[in-house]
Amino acid sequence: MKRFVPLPALLLLLALVGCAQAVPVTPTSAPTGSPATGTASPASAVPATIVIEAEGFSVLDSGGRSTIEFAWADDPGDIVTELDEVFGMRSSQSFQPGDGTHFADFDVYTWDAFSLSIARLGEMSRSDYFLPAAVEVRAEKVGGISIQTAAGLAVGSSVDQVRAAGVGVEEPLNTGGTAYRIDPSEPELIADLSEPTRTVQLDSDPENKTIVLLRAPALSFTPF
After folding, report:
1. N or C terminus of the chain with fewer C-beta within 10 Å?
2. Across 12-91, where does the E strand assignment appear?
3. Contact 138/212 with Cβ under 8 angstroms?
4. Is residue 159 classed exposed, middle or buried when 0-12, 13-18 and 19+ CB atoms within 10 A define those classes?
5. What is the pTM assigned to this prediction?
6. pLDDT at 43 (0 to 100)
7. Would you state the pLDDT for residue 204?
């Protein structure tokens, strides 16, 4: 799977309160399969896993081969239709209005517990906007497809598993529980908080035992 090209930092998380405390991060990489030899069999070509990273997501087949790659600033193109095929269902569509300041209007496409939000930017370049697209995941699997981080963390993972994998920032949520930000695009920016970098965020339940929401991208801290 190719590595995404870093894009401008993003994602204001209005649901969060408190001050983030950074800790050293141990970067992880997305799982990859064995090198392909010859033509992939029909079984291995079937979508099996979606890997969420700070700069986008990839769809892998059962052999670990990347079949779809989407970076947040990419032209949305056929991504919704492609995800319809991956999940084996058509998405429902809704509209999320912007706030007139930081947030644009968004089209939100939902497949059960997986949502993809795509900003309406008009003539603005998608790479010039801090949040051109984002995902939220509320279940370990959707349509039989596993959804996880590069380190294999998912909704349902324990907080202990998340901490063992390496956390960049922990921040309390105003709904209870904790936001754990992992897999930063630029790990060197985590330690001194000099400027934000994109991460993947895992939100725990109020008891801070289990992950109940996976979202990306998320800023390591909010600069505004």
Report:
1. C
2. 21-22, 47-53, 56-61, 66-71
3. yes
4. buried
5. 0.79
6. 52
7. 98
Look at residues 162, 144, 29, 154 and name the one whose alpha carbon lies nearest to residue 88.
144
Can you tell me the distance from the alpha carbon of 176 to that of 40, in angstroms, rounded to the nearest whole number? 46
Q: Of 49, 50, 26, 34, which Cα lies nearest the Cα of 165? A: 26
Contact between 206 and 177 under an 8 Å Cβ cutoff? The reply is: yes
Burial class (CB in 10 A: 0-12, 13-18, 19+), 157: buried
Distance, in Å, from the CA atom of 20 to the CA atom of 149, rounded to the nearest integer, reads 21
Distance CA 25, CA 27 (A): 6
Give the chain's length.
Answer: 224
- Closest to 207 in 3D by CA, of 180, 176, 167: 176
- Residue whose C-alpha is closest to residue 106's, from 150, 72, 59, 141: 72
The radius of gyration of the chain's CA atoms, rounded to the nearest angstrom, is 17
Running along the chain, 224 residues long, what does each successive block of 10 average in pLDDT?
38 35 41 38 76 98 96 96 98 92 90 98 84 97 98 98 95 95 93 86 98 96 79
